[in-house]
Amino acid sequence: MTDDHGRRSGLVEWMALTVDCPEPDVMADFYAVLLGGTVTRPTPGQAKVDAPGGPIYFRAAPDHKPPTWPSPEVPLHQHFDYVVEDPHAAAQQLISLGASLAAHQDRDDPNLLVMLDPAGHPFCLIRSSAAGGY
Q: C-alpha distances in angstroms, 110 versus 39, 43, 67, 81?
């Protein structure tokens, strides 16, 4: 990605935040009002809010336990989605910075690569040419 002066500003472009929750529709309706966004439901068990600053996806997690923050007993539940030209090339650069490939990958989606940050938090690399389909 480049900044206003044509220099590379990072390895990826931030795309969205995904939040696991027990009721995606309820969460999407709430955040759409809170942020002044609009709700779409791209798949069963998922709702999306298009809001200023970028989209937020809410994904059904039937066994969801609310975070107990600031107690670490149940940590926060969300991850970032990033757009990249080539997920596999970006992954190699990110691995050199301490990231790793997640054990679970969606074998049916060649445009999506799940990674773990150095602390084990998941994030997704999505091929830029396919990003509009998510």
A: 27, 18, 32, 15
